[in-house]
Amino acid sequence: MKPDTKLKRKSKVILGQIAALTMFLSFLSCNKPIANRTNNLSASNRVTNLLAKMTLEEKIGQMNQYNGFWDVTGPVPVAGDAKMKYEHLRTGQVGSVLNVAGAAEVRKMQEVVVNESRLGIPLIFGLDVIHGHKTLFPIPLAEAASWDLEAIKQGARISAVEAAARGINWTFAPMVDISRDARWGRVMEGAGEDPYLGSMIAKARVEGFQGESLSDPSTIAATAKHFAAYGFAEGGRDYNTADIGTYTLYNVVLPPFKACLDAGVATFMNGFNVLNGIPATGDRFLQRDLLKGKWGFDGFIVSDWGSINEMVAHGFAADLKEAVVAAANAGCDMDMESLGYVKLLKEAVEEGRVDIAVIDEAVSRILQVKEQLGLFDDPYKYCDVDREELLVGHADHHAAALDVARRSIVLLKNDGQLLPLKKKQQGLAVIGALAADKNSPLGSWRIQSDDETAISVLEGLDKLGVDYTYEQGVRLKNGATDFIREVPINEIDTTGMAAAVELAKQSEQVIMVLGEVGFQSGEGRSRTRLGFPGLQQELLERVHEVNDNIILVVMSGRPLVLTWADKRIPAILQTWQLGTQSGHAIAETLFGDSNPSGKLPMTFPRAVGQVPIYYNHFKTGRPGPIDLVFWSHYIDESIYPLYPFGHGLSYSKFDYDDLTIDTTMASTRNLGVSVTLENTSDQDGVEIVQLYISDPFASVVRPVKELKGFQKVSLTAGEAQEVRFQLTEKDFSYYNQLGELVFEPGQFVIHLGGSSYCEHQVSVSLN
Ligand code: BGC
């Protein structure tokens, strides 16, 4: 299996020549549909022949993935591992490595297996390319707020271009876990709470990463993760149990995974969580019966970091060996960092506890993905240092990141049209440590990016030539923060508070930039309190006492509880963590060079006690309100969110009129729905028109509303346009307890508007 050296040389020359074109070609190609790979597993001749030559140890080696020894995203490997792992590379006992990046570094490791192992089977190099590689895009939750599928696809495309130029050919993304719980730190990594929006975004991301063909050296294999229900961790506590019913499993959790599959995703990752009593990693129903069986997935499934071993702690396996047997038999093809398959799978096969057919199937799936990536033809196709030099951090990538950042900002509140501000304005104060922070806007999951590379809000204002005076107010952090440690937040040092209050007193207007540190969300970052961390709330209140003309810029990796601010602060801009270009996007939006159009992909609660809170909930038998206390409510807080799913304002104003249904096709359960949207303001702008359906009565309880369509409509000042949707039977159907799609005739309601609170509705009967 040593590659032909002539071929290698040739491909390197070609790569060099096309390097400059790669990015532009790949931009174009990402719009074309990609081949559907969901047909039944059929290995190529090369894979079949190779499999026939492999010893059992070599086969198991392909199922083994190691961390790249110096950079970790989980518990650090035990001492002595590094030496052992290098030896395993030479002896063909490693199929994949994660967390090694850089064209030269990857080449070095690839050379060991290609030149020194018996069969020279190339490694597949995985990395969490979650929202960019060096050039960072907004965190995925923020990008989801753009509801802009083309922009999101482009973000994934460019992330792939940069990662591929640095030797990576496999990303552990997209994370498509639906979550309704802002306490869970990993909401920053997904697309929010809705299965429809989540599915559309999942598809866009897979298509962006994988492009038209995996053999294109600017594309990388994607991973749909974490299969399944990890986003339903109880109490929002990471790694915790999920316990959900079949309605939620089939109608909420699974659709984005199915969308990835239909988009041709190359791999799946299982998860850390227990789902209804079974750890996802050992769940035969999910992996073997559903994904590989009913759905016909022909790629491979990788475990999560050490999740095979964790089945012992779960109490699902007595020891690592039992865990290995359970995982392999359940359909988990590759072991990420449990060191279980490599140590114990051979014994398990020899004892007859795992059939050799299970091994052959797993290896064949893994080799097939390597084949699709073209690694057998050229194991070094991702290792071109010239390409790396040319493409990583390219100016066009920054321009695209800025474009998505602008689209991701959500204007939560704008009383009296306080925003946008005028650039010439005097007496402007900027307060808050995050305004000067060049790290936090990069967010979590930025393994290969460089620290301090975000444009800060202050830099964004400078670029626009805005005149302002800055005070930090209070320090937010208490030292350095990083990806693997808790964030030390300053809870006591009030130095700087008085100066900020004094500045506010003397100013006409105050922009306050408050929120979370970049690493306060992400993996392992669950929170029970969702207010501003540290002393920021106190700072806000003290500034507000002397000057209530405040514009609040919120940076966060999740919905925060903004109830106090909503009652008192006239303008609030949700800016998430917007990546490398953050400060430019925020400044442009504050001063009207960019008109906000984002809509919330997750409900913002009034109080943590409302969580989980989401728009597509079931109806209770006591919806109320009634005079007595016996209805479904809280005695100390409203049942409604602060800002609902789909909410987001604009500097323009949009009116909806003439909602009509074209029922000429109703007999076939196909419906045309249209509405007239008018921009009644003097500002050009973009509205995201949302269509929801509800089924008032069915043989199962259906959610109060479900998103079934949306369109981003760009209207110049004063312009009106008819916006049309086409609904089909599937949009009115649901999955029953057996996972079958069911349509029940009867009355449905169609709701249209600019958020999930849409006021325009019309009923229709379908038979
Ligand atoms: C995360 C995965 C990630 C893996 C590798 C785990 O801790 O749960 O999502 O892909 O680490 O970094």
Distance between the termini: 60 Å
CATH architectural label of the domain at 401-610: 3-Layer(aba) Sandwich
Strand order of the largest sheet: 11-16-15-14-12-13
Give the CATH class of the domain at 401-610.
Alpha Beta
Helix-strand layout with pairing:
Layout: H1 5-29, H2 45-53, H3 56-62, E1 64-67, H4 81-90, E2 96-98, H5 103-116, E3 124-127, H6 140-144, H7 149-165, E4 170-171, H8 195-210, E5 223-227, H9 246-262, E6 267-270, E7 274-275, E8 278-279, H10 284-294, E9 300-302, H11 310-313, H12 320-330, E10 335-336, H13 341-350, H14 356-373, H15 385-391, H16 395-408, E11 410-414, E12 428-431, H17 457-464, E13 469-471, H18 497-506, E14 509-515, H19 536-546, E15 550-555, H20 563-568, E16 571-574, H21 582-590, E17 654-662, E18 671-679, E19 685-694, E20 706-715, E21 720-727, H22 729-732, E22 734-735, E23 741-742, E24 746-753, E25 760-766
Parallel strand pairs: 1-2, 1-10, 2-3, 3-4, 5-6, 6-9, 12-13, 12-14, 14-15, 15-16
Antiparallel strand pairs: 7-8, 11-16, 17-18, 18-21, 19-20, 19-24, 22-23, 24-25
Bound molecules: beta-D-glucopyranose.
What this model shows, in words?
- It is a single chain.
- By secondary structure, the protein is α/β, with parallel strands linked by helices.
- Among the domains are: 401-610, Rossmann fold (3-Layer(aba) Sandwich), CATH 3.40.50.1700; 654-766, Immunoglobulin-like (Sandwich), CATH 2.60.40.10.
- The chain is 32% helix and 16% strand.
- It has 22 helices and 25 strands.
- The strands form 7 sheets. It has a 6-stranded mixed sheet with strand order 11-16-15-14-12-13, covered by helices on one side. A 5-stranded parallel sheet has the order 4-3-2-1-10. A 4-stranded antiparallel sheet has the order 20-19-24-25.
- A hairpin with an 8-residue loop joins β17 (654-662) and β18 (671-679).
- The longest helix is centred in the N-terminal third of the chain and has 25 residues, at 5-29.
- The protein is globular.
- Mean pLDDT is 93; it is low at 1-40.
- It binds beta-D-glucopyranose.
- Beta-D-glucopyranose binds next to loops.
